[in-house]
Amino acid sequence: MTRRARSKHLFTSSKRQRTSREVAKTEQQEEYAIPREGGFGAIISEGLERFEAHYSQQGLVGGADWHKLKHSLRQPLPVAFRLCARRCEEGQAARSELVKLQQELAEGCTTTRGRFVPPPKAFAFADCISLACDAKTLRQEQKEAPSSALARLGNWLLKHSAQGNVSRQEVVSAVPVALLGIEAEHSVLDLCAAPGSK
Fold first, then answer.
1. Cα dihedral: 183, 187, 193, 194 (round 10)
2. DSSP string for 146-192
């Protein structure tokens, strides 16, 4: 079966339509573009300058401590989570697995890339645990040393997050829940700003 040649007129017509769509898209992008020179990087730099100016005027810290504070604020947040299922059988099994992993990591560990990771810190009042590493370090360890205790803890976290036994939550976000003393029969209306889980 022979193929019919496509008409040159149809080809140029579709090309014109594509070109007009691309022009319209470019015009739309320019319309919504932020009217600043230097693009997004300039916005970030300006924001950092304003942030630093504001907090340096507060006089909370000075000298070398100011530089330490800035360095700390630029670090990624550690992985933290709260245990949700307290009474169910599945939740108890998850908790016992976690206790075993915590015992293995009681002295801390060294990743395959040579970074020392201190032991996980438990905040019993909020049923919350904070790891001494960020999500990137945890993923690297899961990929590069899947049998290590830290990688197995990462896998445990993924599994039990998916099952609803664990909620990924910063310790400061778990504190209000702990202070409220919420029970199963209580109804709670969360009016906190999104995104986030309190």
1. 90
2. TTSHHHHHHHHHHHHHHHTSEEE--HHHHHHHHHHT--TT------S
Per-residue model confidence (pLDDT) at position 32: 46
- In angstroms, rounded to a whole number, what is the distance separating the alpha carbons of residues 125 and 195? 24
Q: Which amino acid is at 127?
A: D
Percent of the chain predicted with pLDDT > 70:
73
Report which DSSP code applies to 86. S
pTM of this prediction exceeds 0.70:
no
Comparing CA positions, the residue from 153, 56, 50 lying closest to residue 105 is: 153
The terminus-to-terminus CA distance of the chain in angstroms comes to 67
> Lowest mean pLDDT: which of 52-61, 63-72, 139-148, 189-198?
189-198
